[in-house]
Specification:
The complex is a heterodimer.
Chain A: E1 4-5, E2 9-25, H1 27-30, E3 40-41, H2 52-70, E4 80-85, H3 91-96, E5 104-106, H4 113-126, E6 132-139, H5 141-148, E7 164-165, E8 168-175, E9 182-187, H6 202-221, E10 230-233, H7 237-250, E11 259-261, H8 262-265, E12 278-279, H9 281-297, E13 303-311, H10 315-319, E14 326-334
Parallel strand pairs in A: 2-3, 4-5, 4-6, 7-12, 10-11, 10-13
Antiparallel strand pairs in A: 1-2, 2-8, 2-9, 6-8, 9-14, 13-14
Helix pairs in contact in A: 6-7
Chain B: H1 5-15, H2 21-49, H3 54-74, H4 78-85, H5 87-90, H6 93-106, H7 112-119, H8 125-149
Classes of the chains: A alpha/beta, B mainly alpha.
Chain lengths: 337, 150
């Protein structure tokens, strides 16, 4: 047995396959470089719903439905669903998934939630507690802005380090097979707080967590950046991306060749006015489920690391002068065998 | 981690681009000045064409500018101007209108009472609280000085 290796890593005894994935994105994401990769593009921010919160719930529900359909399975085949989002009390997940009647674990890891869900779901499957499970998350620019920041019509200026919340959702269906891209290792991150208090520099706040998890993964497994075709972080943006490269360089790991960040990939940073890049639970969820996993299915990547990065702040903690704790969870995914 | 917290914050500050101060300042000056010029236009118009006395005309200008700020907020134009103008659209009275109208629009979904009406002052509330408090304080000082000075 001995599934645990090193300090924080689990090597799955039977790798867990990602049977299918589905992604939903908004108009701004459609206009970005990955626009043609998403399964569903919403015509507008409302998507025929009365409130943006309802829209976000619908995004999760439809992403799950589509992923299960693509896997050729039924809702009733799912033993568990892991879901969360950025809204208070995770109402995107709780309200969106109530009609699906799948045993539900609500989780919150801020923007790392997708990878947290994939980690937990694959451990349950490898442990023999489930045959199939789904992980889903979402974020919506309008719901996130009104919860964390200012009303949309308020005339404010954003700082150069601020990031743009992705309107997107991604869902992945997991099961016991290696004929598809499959999860081999899981490195669960620790909360890292380097004292960054600027809520408009979340990349800088989360980069130490991404660094710690990535370094620990290499130490635990004995692997190195060269073992992977792609190291993907969720939403560090341009600032956090550059910080992570520096921090890894200082430890003797050069990741410049095969490293990218979902927040830097999903928008055209020069023309789309998103400042430091994209962010939100839906960022890595839609990039991974819409762009990366299908590319792995086509054989374009052999082995990747997907690292979800989250900032565990709230509006209350910010007002009370607290710093921004960061979290980063990692899964290693291998292409189909 | 190679850095202590202090070292990391210092390093991060170097890595993080700053707001373009000169550009922001010049834009704020131009937009803010532009809004004041529009206000002056209305003041002249009300005084000269509509023959209002100066106090009446000033009040009418405030009302006009608040109306324009609210209108442009509702038309999704004010926030687009503000992106470039910064303090230039924040400081004039049009910015105050924007601060009240924008949450009113946004939180209408939560109902007319606990949504629209109560959230209307989330941004402008502090301005009112401290503005009114400060003006009462200044008024008191003015009153005392006047009493002492005869």
């Amino acid at each position: 047995m001995g599934k645990r290796i090193g300090k924080q890593t689990v090597r799955l005894e039977h790798p867990v396959g990602i049977l299918a994935s589905a992604s939903i994105a908004g108009q701004k994401e459609k206009d970005g470089p990955l626009g043609s990769d998403f399964d569903v593009i919403m015509a507008d921010a409302e998507w025929n719903e009365e409130t943006w919160e309802k829209t976000e719930s619908k995004m999760q529900k439809e992403a799950v439905r589509l992923a299960i359909q693509k896997a050729g399975l039924a809702l009733s085949d799912m033993h568990y669903i892991f879901a969360g989002d950025l809204l208070n009390q995770c109402i995107g997940a709780g309200f969106g998934l109530r009609e699906l009647h799948i045993p539900y674990f609500g989780i919150y890891g801020a923007c790392s939630t997708m990878i947290e869900g994939l980690s937990l779901a694959s451990m349950l499957i490898d442990g023999g507690f489930a045959d199939h499970a789904v992980a889903v998350t979402s974020s919506h620019f309008c719901t996130a802005e009104r919860q964390y920041r200012m009303p949309l019509e308020y005339g404010g200026q954003r700082t150069p380090t601020a990031q743009w919340t992705v309107t997107g959702s991604g869902a992945a269906v997991l099961g016991k097979t290696v004929d598809v891209p499959h999860i081999t290792h899981i490195t669960t991150g620790k909360i890292m707080d380097m004292g960054v208090k600027d809520a408009n520099n979340m990349g800088g706040a989360m980069a130490p967590a991404a660094f710690d998890t990535l370094l620990t993964h290499f130490q635990d497994t004995g692997l190195s950046p060269a073992d992977y075709d792609l190291i993907l972080t969720g939403d560090l943006g341009t600032v956090g991306r550059d910080v992570l490269i520096d921090l890894m360089q200082n430890e003797g790991f050069d990741i410049t060749d095969n490293y990218n960040d979902g927040g830097c990939m999903i928008y055209d940073l020069d023309t789309q006015d998103v400042h430091a890049g994209g962010s939100g639970c839906g960022c890595i969820a839609s990039v991974l489920c819409g762009h990366i996993l299908p590319a792995m299915q086509r054989g374009e990547f052999r082995r990747i690391l997907a690292i979800g990065t989250g900032a565990l702040l709230s509006t209350t903690s910010g007002l009370q002068g607290e710093s921004v704790p960061g979290i980063a969870h990692l899964v290693a995914i291998s292409g189909k065998e | 981690m190679q850095y202590t917290k202090q070292e990391y914050l210092k390093y991060l500050e170097q890595k993080s681009p700053n707001s373009p101060l000169w550009k922001d300042t010049i834009f704020a000056f131009l937009f803010g000045g532009g809004i004041c010029t529009i206000g002056q236009f209305f003041l002249n118009l009300y005084q000269n064409t509509f023959s209002m006395d100066s106090e009446m005309a000033r009040t009418a200008v405030s009302i006009t500018m608040i109306f324009l700020g609210a209108l442009l907020t509702g038309l999704d134009i004010y926030c687009k101007l503000a992106k470039y103008a910064g303090a230039g659209t924040l400081v004039p009275i049009t910015g105050f209108a924007n601060a009240i109208v924008s949450p009113a629009i946004e939180f209408k979904k939560e109902g007319l009472v606990l949504g629209l009406a109560s959230k209307m002052f989330v941004i402008a509330g502090p301005v009112l609280v401290y503005g009114i408090t400060a003006s009462a304080g200044v008024g008191l000082i003015y009153f005392i000085i006047k009493q002492l000075g005869g």
